[in-house]
Amino acid sequence: MNKILVIGDSCTDIYTYCKSFRLAPDKPVPILEIVKVKENPGMACNVFCNAASLVGKDVDIVTNDNYTEVKKNRYVDRSSNHMFFRVDSSVKIDRINSLEDVSFDYDTVIISDYDKGFLAESDIEYICEEHPRVFLDTKKVLGPWARAATYIKINNREYERSKDFIDDHLKNKIIQTLGSKGCLYRGDVYPTKSIETIDLSGAGDTFLACLAISYTKHKDIKKAIEFGNRCATKVCKKKGTSIIIGEKY
């Protein structure tokens, strides 16, 4: 069985589902009635949960201890899944204490960096240099510190922010997700099936986890991309942050 390590910053995702039938009399804003509240581990913890769903106990995580206090609360219409607004806690995520204390005795390392303070660029560079197979997903603008990563997963918006700093070496490592169009790798587009998307929340986390796990087993990046696409498409059919269950990789 292959062993996976996830490193990154985590939070608690909260989905407060509401119904609204009228506007406030004093201001043109909807009056919300809370129907249901759903909580899930988010960010790097969501990557971990997706990976653990596929491979069981052979997945570990290094993340901020206070992730249950770091909250993203989305107020969502129960019927349409329209998000009215999001309220984030102001709890600070401290930088990881010492990477030298982290064991890298794993087949694959996944870095899920939401750029909330847990990992600095130098930390990511250190991890990539310490392990021969690192899948990197980061909200930071890419730079030379990411050169030792094996593969780098970024979305369209992140690519636009980083494109002026991407040289040919980095470009060959990038797997660029394209939303409903699939993803782009080394000039080839890997499409996804056309579906009615319910919620994109956490789909990138699912793609990352499934991509890394499939590659760890098969050593075939094209097959891994196709598996990641298939799994991400499935979670887009569900409300809120979800994990992939029962997929053969």
SSE arrangement:
Elements: E1 4-8, E2 10-19, E3 33-43, H1 44-55, E4 59-62, E5 71-77, E6 83-88, E7 108-113, H2 121-130, E8 134-138, E9 151-155, H3 156-162, H4 168-171, E10 174-177, E11 183-185, E12 188-190, H5 203-218, H6 221-235
Parallel strand pairs: 1-4, 1-7, 2-5, 7-8, 8-9, 9-10
Antiparallel strand pairs: 2-3, 5-6, 10-11, 11-12
Helix pairs in contact: 1-5, 5-6
Structure in a nutshell:
With 249 residues, the chain is an alpha/beta fold. Helices cover 26% and strands 28% of the residues.
Please describe what this structure looks like.
- The strands form two sheets. The protein has an eight-stranded mixed β-sheet, sandwiched between helices.
- The longest helix has 16 residues, at about 205-220.
- The relative contact order is 0.16.
- Helix 1 (about 45-55) crosses helix 5 (about 205-220) and helix 5 runs antiparallel to helix 6.
- About 25% of the residues lie in helices and about 30% in strands.
- It contains six helices and twelve strands.
**pLDDT below 50 for ≥5 consecutive residues: which ranges?**
none
Number of strands: 12
Shape: globular
- Return the CATH class: Alpha Beta
Largest sheet: 8 strands, mixed
What integer value in Å does the Rg equal?
Answer: 19 Å
CATH fold node name: UDP-N-acetylmuramoyl-L-alanine:D-glutamate ligase
Mean pLDDT: 93
Order of helices and strands: EEEHEEEEHEEHHEEEHH
